[in-house]
Amino acid sequence: MMLTGECHCGALRWSFDGVPGSGTVCNCSVCRRYGAIWAYGHEGEEIRLSGPARAYLWGDRGLGFHFCPDCGCVGYWRAVEASPDGRRRVAVNLRLGAPEAVDTVPLRRFDGRGAFEGMPPDGRCLADLWL
To answer: How many helices (H) and strands (E) does the chain have?
Structure first.
């Protein structure tokens, strides 16, 4: 199965090969403002990115949060530098996917504001966040 997502205007796109094991909700100062739900992988492996994007770098400037320059939707974050093995870590925003394609993905909560660690699962999935 291939999941896909796109920004509101359709210019920025991503694809995820398979179904993510979880969607991460983080409460750090950036993620809570973006309201993103992240699915992790590596660029050019299970995740492919396309379309125009601008990046916002913050903190240690190790991650770029990429958004569509036209409609402003946050599509993904991408490691600024590849790891020593040449792989580049990426996380796509599952909120850009079709709800029926991602609504059963389990939620994973991450405390990025305090302890910087995962929190116990509570049994919810993405559909529990749709309003």
So the answer is: 2, 11
Q: What are the C-alpha distances in Å from 113 to residues 9, 45, 124, 131?
A: 31, 30, 21, 24
Distance CA 77, CA 75 (A): 7
Tell me: the pLDDT tens digits for 31-48?
999 999 999 999 999 999
Query: pLDDT tens digit string along 60-85?
Result: 899 999 999 999 999 999 999 999 99
Adjacency order of strands within the sheet including 47-50: 2-6, 13-17, 47-50
Output the pLDDT for position 44. 97
**Rounded Cα–Cα distance for residues 23 and 34 (Å):** 14
Q: Is-above-0.85 flag for pTM?
A: yes
pLDDT of residue 58: 83
Which residue's structure tokens are 């569509």? 68
Spatial distance between the Cα atoms of 116 and 119, rounded to a whole number of angstroms: 9
Q: Which amino acid is at 6?
A: E
Domains belonging to the chain, first-starting first, are 2-116 (2.170.150.70)
